[in-house]
Amino acid sequence: MPRYAQLVMGPAGSGKSTYCSTILQHCEVLNRSVQVVNLDPAAEHFSYPVMADIRELIQVDDVMEDPSLRFGPNGGLIFCMDYFSNNFDWLEESLGHVEDDYILFDCPGQIELYTHLPVMKQLVEQLQMWEFRVCGVFLVDSQFMVESFKFISGVMAALSAMVSLEIPQINVMTKMDLLSPRAKKELQKYLDPDMYSMIEDSSDSIRSSKFKKLTRAICELIEDYSMVRFLPLDRTDEEGVNIVLQHIDFCIQYGEDLEVKEPKEVDEEPSNLNYDEIFADTGTS
Questions:
Q1: Any idea which of 8-17, 123-132, 169-178, 206-215 has the lowest mean pLDDT?
Q2: Could you give the CA distance from residue 55 to residue 45 in angstroms, rounded to a whole number?
Q3: Using an 8 Å Cβ cutoff, are 119 and 7 in contact?
Q4: Under a CB-based contact definition with an 8 Å cutoff, are residues 42 and 64 in contact?
Q5: Sign of the alpha-carbon torsion through 20, 22, 25, 31
Q6: Cα 175 to chain center, whole Å?
Q7: pLDDT band at 36 (very low <50, low <70, confident <90, very high)
Q8: Sign of the C-alpha dihedral, residues 39, 41, 42, 48?
Q9: Helix ranges (DSSP H) in 166-255
């Protein structure tokens, strides 16, 4: 049987760990077995148990404190991820091999890992060799996506990860529960956006004709090919969480190979049951 994986990605502060915690709690309610693997060597703490933690292999703090390396935070993280890509056997040993595994990989927030560095692509290929069906889940903070320019920037980041990794991808707007009712209503137009109307909204504020043409070309590309759409995620709304999970499950075809559960057997009726007396009592009451 295949195994299943969500690659939880997004900029720093987009709510990746909170997303993992929300999905984990939701699946517990559904009686589904889900595990989380931390792939962020700079993470500090979690509100949920992890199946495996990259910090057992290497930590950013240790790399930064090494006098022979002298890396800063970003350089240290890239060094850690490069080291990780050369030690996938550690991950294989940590995962073991259990049929029908469903694992969330909580990834770092540095965007360069999903644009021009090969480590995440190598991870995807390795997981697929281990018979995982992988879906990317790209998170963007909904509080950031309230203006056309910021929205287009978020779309391009999501599109970059999609093109780089070449896997099915679900894009999610997180932290919807932190928005005011007015902001939520305003954000609706960005969930299924009309890119042509955004061009008109932003054209007056762009002075350079070259940037106007570039913005128009980007918006037309996104609109014509329907390349990026977002799902809202309010962690306090169980139905909304379930909708996001259903979209992801559909992408990786989760549940197609599960065995059909037999219905529970009904207890046998007592042999001395007198139906005539029962119906007689019912008629007189």
A1: 206-215
A2: 11
A3: no
A4: no
A5: negative
A6: 13
A7: very high
A8: positive
A9: 181-191, 195-203, 209-225, 238-252
Residue whose entry in the numeric block shows the structure tokens 């007015």: 182
Summarised one tens digit per residue, pLDDT across range 206-241 is 667 787 788 888 888 888 777 788 999 999 999 999
Give the tokens for residue 25: 């709690």
What sign does the CA torsion over 190, 162, 238, 258 have? positive
Please write the tens of the pLDDT for every residue from 110-122. 888 988 889 999 9
CA 170, CA 232: separation in Å to the nearest integer? Answer: 11
Q: Are 146 and 183 in contact (CB under 8 A)?
A: yes
State the pairing for strand pair 3-9/102-106. parallel
Residue 100 CA to residue 272 CA, distance in Å, equals 46
Report the range of poorest mean pLDDT among 84-88, 114-118, 237-241, 244-248. 114-118
Residue 236, classified by CB atoms within 10 Å of its CB into exposed (0-12), middle (13-18) or buried (19+), is: exposed
Q: How far apart are CA 137 and CA 120, in angstroms?
A: 13
CA-based nearest residue to 61, from 47, 79, 48, 46: 79
Report CA dihedral (218, 222, 224, 228) to the nearest 10 degrees: 180
CA distance 283 to 222: 69
Residue whose C-alpha is closest to residue 173's, from 140, 137, 145? 140
- Residue 48: burial class (beta carbons within 10 Å; 0-12, 13-18, 19+): middle
Helices (H) and strands (E) in the chain, counts: 11, 7
Helix, strand or coil, per DSSP, at residue 238: helix
Cα distance between residue 162 and residue 137, in whole Å: 10
